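note to self — DONT lose this again. spent like an hour looking for the file last time. sequence + predicted structure for the chain T wanted, 324 res
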Amino acid sequence: MRILVAGAGGFIGGHLVSRLLADGNEVRAVDLKPLSEWYQVHKQAENITGDLSRREVAFESVRSIEWVFNLAADMGGMGFIENNKALCMVTSLINTHLLQGSVEHGVKRFFFSSSACVYASWHQKEATEVHLKESDAYPADPEDGYGWEKLFGERMCRHFEEDFGLEVRIARYHNVYGPFGTYNGGREKAPAAACRKVVDFQLDPSQPIQVWGDGNQIRSFTYIDDCIEGTMRLMASNFSKPLNIGSSESVSIQSLYDLICENQEVENPKYTYDLSAPQGVRGRSSDNTLCHSVLGWVPQVSLKAGLERTYNWIRSEMVMSEKS
């Protein structure tokens, strides 16, 4: 098939393009960033730099395309989305124009990458294992800014299917991590930030590892290979409602750091805690009951295994950067 990946220069987008090409598809890869800033560039793809929030760019991008994967968003980890709510909301222009263009150009199927940030806040106020099922998004009270944009995007997809017959698929991703992603600069998510900070501690043990918050926040983290596999299975299914794509393996932020240190045999790690830093909700994990029922599958990569692969990649990148 001819497939568009919007946001192909990002972390998940780069891995998705790789999978689609490996499966024998023709891929048009579009991202706002110049090619030199893409996390992965695949020469076999048609790589385009363009602003998909502009109607004419979005419409031209979906021309002659059969499937659309919309991963494009101005986002990052909690440190970014809590301080850039307006930028997160403006992303709704991308989804709007891609949906309109898909209808005009006869796209067969449209994928929207949503987020666990859509879930209502009152389910997530305690630092306990809260496995959120898809119905827990309503009554609506999502993460301010980013969460509202994602929830709005989900509903827009639903109405485009109802009114125009465009087949849609919607995944609610839960904290995706892995190699070839952001690990510094302010947009990184917790697993990548934790790996970077442990590397820094190994290089200079006199500087403690700084944890955002008290370390008791509960999350589940999804390794990138599972994210891509779940995305492909969902896209090939007949299920058009929002579906969790995320690990149900819950862990505290403190335990996340401890696991990295254990994997790397870091002795006597020292921590400090920044209670003023962005922390997000207290407890959030994925309920995979519906995912298993619909796809006959759930994420397979353990947090221990995924963190080891991610750490090794980040450390090699940091060492290479030091040498250069």
